[in-house]
């Protein structure tokens, strides 16, 4: 039987009956944009993250973009981020200011505070750390650096719903934070959706203004804005899923623990290093592997799907060629892109499947050594 890289059917079944009833109500009452469902999600998710405010939006990309604008980023301002992330992180910056990349830490795949410090100029106005794959970035270091340099701190928490450092959840460290609820995320909608969290009242007010065409009253627009509102249906989905998120995250953590325990003796497979006190929620279980192409082919032959994310770091993509970067500029990010491989790990997969995959991986490297 084929082991899919991702299968959302288990999560969907848990809420399907309630959701169909909710959808029927929304259709009968003609409620499609905003309303009580969106407001309820905003209140619940802010409480979950430990922030004063959550602003529901149409995507994680717009959550980043509006968060940066609310922090005062202008077209001439530089914003530092990681080149090992989804392009949306860089897009949000380039559509508001100027993206500047810094290298990642080879052990965690997260943005390196030391590298960021070396990239700060008199034009730098913000840092956007990415909690890659659900592992919190070093927010103490970034918080101290932002305070010292007078910079805004906007978290890209799009893959890290529920991740934490100690008792403090991601999304509550910076001036603002962005979450994506793309269907594959730990907390996923049934389409595109996102949110910004913040405890800064002025920041929250600006994001709310920007998400609805800068409108402060019927057909009265204080400034130009965007159409970045969350659909009511997506809020209804998220309201049903949010109470299940912690249990689903615990399941991901258990599956990731099996991989890590079963493969810890392999020098050819190096998982992200999780600092003590950091809670990784494993949006993806990712490792740096040797012979990636052959391992992936071997697993595919045994009906196991894997995934390679960000095989080209952002600074080497054609979309950002104008920044003038070359291979070797950010060697750690390039090394991660060359070697990273993601294994199946999601609610409903089952421990037995993970043990099976781990056995196959050990067999592959045992055979490779023998050859």
Topology:
Elements: H1 9-29, H2 36-49, E1 53-57, H3 60-70, E2 78-81, H4 87-94, E3 98-101, H5 113-119, E4 124-128, H6 139-149, E5 152-156, E6 164-165, E7 168-169, E8 176-180, E9 194-198, H7 201-211, E10 215-217, E11 220-221, H8 232-241, H9 245-263, E12 269-271, E13 278-279, E14 285-289, H10 292-301, H11 331-339, E15 340-343, H12 351-370
Parallel strand pairs: 2-3, 2-4, 4-5, 5-8
Antiparallel strand pairs: 1-9, 6-7, 6-13, 8-9, 10-11, 12-14, 14-15
Helix pairs in contact: 1-8, 2-8, 3-4, 3-7, 9-12
How many distinct folded domains? 2
Write out the strand line-up for the largest beta sheet, numbering strands in chain order: 1-9-8-5-4-2-3
Terminal-residue CA separation: 28 Å
The main pleated sheet reads as: 7 strands, mixed
- The percent range for strand residues is 15-25%
Fraction of residues in helix: 40-55%
Compute the number of helices.
12
Could you list some keywords that capture this structure?
371 residues, alpha/beta, 12 helices, Aspartate Aminotransferase, domain 2, three-stranded antiparallel sheet, Aspartate Aminotransferase, domain 1, 2 domains
């Amino acid at each position: 039987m084929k082991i899919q890289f991702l299968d959302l059917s288990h999560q969907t079944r848990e809420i399907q009956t309630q959701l169909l009833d909710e959808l029927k109500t929304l259709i009968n009452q003609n409620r499609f944009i905003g309303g009580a469902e969106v407001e309820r999600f905003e209140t619940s998710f802010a409480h979950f993250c430990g922030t004063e405010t959550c602003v529901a939006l149409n995507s994680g990309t717009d959550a980043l973009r509006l968060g940066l604008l609310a922090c005062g980023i202008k077209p001439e301002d530089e914003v530092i981020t990681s080149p090992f992330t989804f392009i949306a992180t860089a897009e949000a910056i380039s559509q508001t200011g100027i993206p500047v990349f810094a290298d990642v830490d080879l052990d965690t795949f997260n943005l390196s505070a030391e590298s960021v410090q070396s990239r700060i100029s008199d034009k730098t106005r913000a840092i956007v750390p990415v909690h890659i794959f659900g592992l919190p970035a070093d927010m103490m270091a970034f918080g101290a650096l932002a305070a010292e340099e007078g910079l805004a701190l906007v978290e890209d928490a799009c893959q890290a719903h529920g991740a934490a450092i100690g008792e403090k959840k991601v999304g509550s460290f910076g001036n603002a934070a962005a979450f994506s609820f793309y269907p594959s995320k730990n907390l996923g909608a049934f389409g595109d959706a996102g949110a910004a969290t913040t405890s800064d009242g002025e920041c929250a007010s600006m994001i709310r203004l920007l998400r609805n065409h800068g409108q402060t009253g019927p057909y009265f627009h204080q400034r130009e804005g965007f159409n970045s509102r969350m659909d009511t249906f997506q809020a209804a989905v998220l309201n049903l899923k949010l109470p299940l998120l912690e249990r689903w995250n615990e399941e991901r953590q258990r599956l990731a623990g099996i991989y890590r325990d079963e493969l810890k003796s392999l020098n050819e497979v190096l998982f992200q290093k999780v600092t003590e006190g950091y809670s990784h929620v494993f949006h993806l279980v990712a490792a740096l592997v040797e012979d990636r192409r052959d391992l992936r082919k071997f697993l595919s032959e045994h009906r196991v799907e894997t995934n390679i994310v960000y095989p080209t770091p952002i600074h080497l993509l054609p979309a950002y060629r104008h920044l003038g970067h070359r291979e070797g500029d950010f060697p750690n990010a390039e090394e991660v892109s060359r070697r990273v491989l993601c294994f199946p790990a999601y609610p409903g997969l089952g421990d037995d499947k993970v043990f099976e995959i781990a056995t196959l991986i050990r067999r592959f490297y045992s055979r490779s050594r023998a050859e």
